[in-house]
Amino acid sequence: MSIIPSTDWALQTLEQWGERAGTLFQNRIRLGVTGLRRSGKTVFVTSVIDNLLRAGRLPFLDVIAEGRYQAARLEAHPRHDVPRFAFEQHLSALTGPVPAWPEPTRGLGQIRLLIRFQPHSPLRRRVQRQSTLVLDIVDYPGEWLLDLPLLTRDFATWSAETLALADRPPRAALAAPWRQALAAVSPTGPADETVMRQLADAYTDYLHACRRSEAGLTLLQPGRFIEPGDLAGAPLLVFCPLPPPAGEVLRPSLYATMAERFEAYKDAVVGRFFRDHFAGLDRQIVLVDLLGAMTRGSPAVSDTAVALTTALEAFRHGRGYWLERLIGVSRIDRVLFAATKADHLAVDQHDDLAHLLGGFVADARNAIRFAGASVETMAIAAVKSTVSVQSPHLGRTLSCVRGTPLGRTAPTVLYPGALPARLVPPYIDTGTVRFLDFQPPPGLGDDGRGLSHIRLDRALQFLLGDVLT
Amino acid sequence: MSGRQSGASAGGTVDRDDPIGPVEFDVDAAQPLVFDGDDAAAADVATPPPPSPGRRWAVRGVVGGGVLLVLTALGFDVADLLARAFATSIALGTAAAVVTAGAAIGLVVLLADEVRSLARLRTMDRLRDVGALAMNSAGGRVGRDYAAAITGLYRDRGDVATALERWRGSVGDAHDDRELVMLIDRVVLADLDRRAEALVLRAARDAAIASMLSPAAVIDVAVMLWRTVRVIRQIAALYGVRPGYIGSVRLFRHMMGNLAVAGLAETGHHMAIEALGGTLAAAVSTKVGQALLNGLLTARIGIAAMHQCRPLAFNADNRPSLAGIRRALLTVPRDIL
Ligand SMILES: Nc1nc2c(ncn2[C@@H]2O[C@H](COP(=O)(O)OP(=O)(O)OP(=O)(O)O)[C@@H](O)[C@H]2O)c(=O)[nH]1
Ligand SMILES: [Mg+2]
CA-nearest residue of chain B to A59? Predict the structure, then answer.
């Protein structure tokens, strides 16, 4: 054994420890933006960054209200193997002459923001004239979030759950072609690559059909089947849920091979994704598009509930200890549940929306509180695309929103209806509410104060306020 | 629904029992939700409360009757005086008449001012109530009325103009009642609070230094009283009360109540310990100790005045504390000696 590798090793370890000790003293926050697809993650990240850079529209962020905020700046992320979040591109889409929402996200994007501010306490100010907070955020396709529950399931369990789900309406009709293909093969039969690929393709088609369907289903696993990212066509993605085999499972059988691939997918794709981007989170915001789910109806609402609850189980919540941080483990100690797109409702109803969300995520919220993290619920809009107005109607005054709906050219004034008091599955849509998707408002961000939003500053105060002191 | 009123019913718009389905409206019929009713809303909130029950009217009757009698007597005397002056010479008579008229006008102006100052004091009480109401509601109306009342209150104040401007820049149509009040609190009132605290600190230092240097206890007390009354009036004026004489007396009375309620009035012993820290107390001469106590008392009264005059109750985070003032006061002996 030569001496060189061992010094190498020692140096590396030392470096690692130094880095960890560094993160202990440096303010670094990894903010986890969690949300199913189309829940508003990309818009949220874009608006947060723009607003922190311009700092003109955040009166509820204490560090700004107290005049201690200096400036923020984007910085290159030290990890070069992950693409950068296309902030500028999304921003110019939103603020362009024809304002447009960002396209659905197809892959990872990370971004790092440095925030300079003066410490709050005079004592710390004496030691350190200015502090720096390093804020790391990762954006990803919402579909991938649904891979996290796979980590705690084996192939048999997952198959059983998925098949049971596919037997119920509205999925049953969509699953028919795939179920036919399944019926034609025997799980204990030979592991023929063409057959397996046919099955996987049929299953992928089924997932796509679910996504496209009127019902707007979101509980679709595995996520990479829909958004493969850089894995398109890889053998890792050639499997699908199988009914339990009747007899003994021999090694090279269809069932055994697919189970192996499932495990490989869990390990190489989901596990890596989780370790790289979710295991080290400090703060978390869970974006829930409650209004969208309600518009799509009862299956979408229950899908969202199940998908969120199971996805959240993967995260480590609780109060972190400094020793844990030193050895590189961290816990999420603040979680914000945010109902997004609050601008679809007039200001009068924001509180109702927050309460509705509170009831909707009650179980997850309790579990996280029990683990020791602090939790809040809010109704926010990352990009405010409507204005609250009042309209006379049948002798009363209704609070409405005014904006231009997607696909129309003229603005309209909409009263979406009163929100239900509770939203517990099975929620039955009674047609009492209707929401319209709006275009981003023209002239967004023209005043140079940052994208206009609803309660983004209060969200940031809850998530980051304590580290900005 | 967790204590807070539901937005729809708070705004008086829609009840859950009688749902109005989704409707689209004509864009032109819609009214924006802004503070255009500034003055109207302010007047609405600032109107004096309805007359109070019988007993107070009896008291007012007695006092008013007495005043009226005195005025009548005075009137006869003045009329007498004028008659005699005119009898002596026309010039003297005219001069006396002018002086009398001047005095009468002055009296009326003074009285009107007093009445207005009392109304302002009551406005503050009402504003505090409305503010508390808005903090617990989730619609968008109460908070808007409250905000309009506050901007109306400080409309003519050059020293509040920048804060008001900043507030206007940060408030939007999507802020609910609670947030509107919180914004007023954080942007407009926080600025006044800082200045009020500076006033209190200055008064406390003055009182402490004066009683440290004064040769006799009588002078101590006189200076302290004078300084206390002055700081109360300054604070009241800062928050927009501008009390008259009757107003000041009233304020003083309210404040004494507040001292007790806020648990501020503690035993002298406790205050001495607070002021000096147990062991140090023995080391410093009683004279210095007494001076610090006087300063601290002045500060307490000043803080009580802040509670009394602020158009929104303090919350746990922005409640003014004696601690900072105590610390600043402790440097006084060192500065002097
Ligand atoms: N009115 C309004 N609509 C919003 C807001 N945020 C998002 N949306 C709408 O929601 C859609 C999805 O937003 P994204 O930010 O792209 O959602 P995402 O979570 O990144 O979606 P994936 O990338 O597919 O996972 C947008 O195209 C908008 O139509 C908002 O603040 N206000
Ligand atoms: Mg996205």
Answer: B170
